[in-house]
Amino acid sequence: MPAERYVMGLFSDENQAAAVAADLPKTPWKLQRVHSPIPSQRLAHALKVKKSKVGWFTLAGGIIGFFAGFLLAIFTAMRWELMVSGKPVVSLVPFFIVGFEFTILFAVFGNVIGLITQTNLPDFGDFKHYDARCSGTHFGILATCAEDGQAELEAYFRQQGGEVRVFEA
Amino acid sequence: MSELTYATIDQTILQTLEKPRPGYWLIVAVLAGGILLGAACWLYQIFVGIGVGGQNNPVAWGIYLVNFVFWVGIAHSGTLISAILHLFRAGWRNPIARAAETMTVFAVLTAGLFPFVHLGRVWAVYYMLPYPNQRTLWPNFQSPLMFDVVAISTYLTVSSLFWYTGMLPDLATVRDRATGLRKKIFTLISLGWTGKHEQWRHYTRGYLFFAALATPLVISVHSVVSWDFALGVVPGWHTTIFAPYFVAGAIHSGLAMVLTLMIPLRRIFNYEKIITVAVLENVAKTIILTGMIVGFAYATEFFIAWYSFNTIEIEVFRYRMFGDYRVGFWIMVVCNTLIPLLFFSKKIRTSIGWLFGLSLLINVGMWFERFVIIITSVARDFIPHAWGLYAPTAIEFGIMIGSFCLFFFLFLLFVKHLPSVSMAEIKETLHEGAPHAG
Q1: Domain residue limits at A74
Q2: Which of the listed residues A45, A56, B275, B277 has the most CB atoms within 10 Å of its CB?
Q3: From the CB of residue B197, how many other CB atoms can be counted at a distance below 10 Å?
């Protein structure tokens, strides 16, 4: 099997990058990934990205938090059954506040867990095919091709207005 | 903003992280001295007892709690700018969102110290924590003070996570341009972020949820703080208006602090093209709104006291205007409700000098608002023979100075070591489709 080459097209223009990202699947080369310094709606549209599932983690956290807060307040009240100011030992109105705060807290924890698991962060070993300009000024489109198709892929990126960087496999 | 490119944005913001001048370290050292002064005063209070403060019977809540409410209030506009305005897609908030969110985190940290200071016997704080114990005593969650413990710790946790998450792409930008030890540190704290579309896909969603969760949280937190007062039967405190009144006041004071911090920041770091006068003008316009809400709340309190025909309420509010603390009251009224009206003048709200000066006055006014609410109500309670006066002692002032120094110390360390403006968000606001690398 011929060796695979990693070639990155670096674009200073978001529109050019989005056009290349949309066009690459129609070519013989394989689009690996796209790096960008900003969250680009145009790139997301070109790549036809699906909706993130992070929200489900957030929702799960919120539901757990609501019951955890309520149950904690009820539990602590039940451990020391003292009537205060004529209010029932299990007073739902004040306990709702604890439930509310825990809902937010646990929803945020769920959100963080969702972000960590979905984005696979932390990931310190993923800089092999990465160009530092992608965190600043350029949109990087990484594609792979067969060894004999490298020149053609490079020419394609240049023709689209990009700069080219070739990585060791 | 139109003159900016991605490259100039990076260059301007990364320049701020270069080696500081000696003057910077001098200011940091002075602030560290202030923190030590505060710490020494607190230590003295721990050794001698809470009696070294001016709190007495009936004024058991002194400036420790005044400062607590003040700093919680300062925190709020950071979340308004970073979360609420994010949900409203208000692009003008992007240049100041990072610094405002940082202000939130440090202000909540500072606020969180005061309940500990106020406790006196600080080592007894574990009574507030719900964990299995041999005392078989558990916190009572019917108490608004326990609501506060839950709300403030939630707010600190959420704000810190929101702040750090928002900074992740910028930490990667710094990492990619750093060398040596700094590169290693930023590699670690940027968690390997590379701006892959898969990362952005989840990140933008997660950030949106952060903002959506922080919004009700920020409203609940200052509502809970207001209930520390409103759920008591003390005249002047026991009103239903307190929650929205406190939330509006919190945002009012926080916006003023945003101006106080941003104006020197943009001058020192040459941020004039990023934090434009239009951005500061928008903050000033928002201050007009919050100032009017606060003014309406002040007037409503007085109206209801008069309309209720409750002699005790009437006396408390008469005492606020003309009693022993009348100077504080009038400072509060003038600085919080009248001075913000000057921002109706375009000339004033677009003048950096006026913006800075007036923001300082609003900060002073909001500190006095907390003082007037807390002190005057308990000083003039139901029974005339139990009336009393309160004046802070040098120890209390020392701790208060320490808290201000702590806040500015942390903020100064932040602006020279982490990106104080969000590079990714500023780039987003640039004209779409234009080439940026230039």
Answers
A1: 54-119
A2: B275
A3: 20
Touching check for A92 and chain B: CB below 8 Å? no
CA distances from B408 to A147, B36, B115, B327, B422 (A): 57, 14, 20, 28, 20
Task: Say whether A34 and B141 touch across the interface (CB within 8 A).
Answer: no
Neighbouring CB atoms inside 10 A of A169's CB total 11
What value does the mean pLDDT of chain B take? 93
Please choose, from the candidates B303, B305, B323, B297, the residue with its C-alpha nearest in 3D space to the C-alpha of residue B388. Answer: B323
Model pLDDT, residue B220: 94
Three-state SS at A7: strand
Number of structural domains found in chain B: 1
Q: Which amino acid type is present at position A136?
A: G
Same domain for A45 and A22: yes
| Closest chain A CA to residue B221 | A101
How many domains does chain A divide into? 2
Q: What is the mean pLDDT of chain A?
A: 91
CB B177 within 8 A of CB A132: yes
Q: Are residues A88 and A58 in the same domain?
A: yes
A-B contacts (CB, under 8 Å): 196
Residue A26 shares a structural domain with residue A81:
no
Cα–Cα distances (Å) from B161 to B32, B104, B164, in that order, read 26, 12, 5
Chain B residues with CB under 8 Å of A127 CB are 192, 194
Query: Is 90 exceeded by the pLDDT of residue A85?
Result: no
CATH of the domain at B141: 1.20.1630.10
Ranges of chain B whose pLDDT falls below 70: 1-2, 431-438
Tens of pLDDT, residue by residue over B97-141, are 999 999 999 999 999 999 999 999 999 888 888 888 888 788 889
List, as ranges, residues 140-169 from A with C-beta within 8 Å of B.
Answer: none
Q: What is the pTM of this model?
A: 0.93
pLDDT in tens, A137-154: 999 999 999 888 899 999
E strands present in A52-93: none
In a domain, residue B253? The reply is yes
Kindly determine whether residue B210 and residue A72, on different chains, have CB atoms separated by under 8 Å: no
Question: Count of alpha carbons within 13 Å of A87, Cβ hemisphere only?
Answer: 14
Calculate how close chain B gets to A2, using CA atoms only, in Å: 27
**ipTM for the complex shown:** 0.93
pLDDT of res. B431:
55
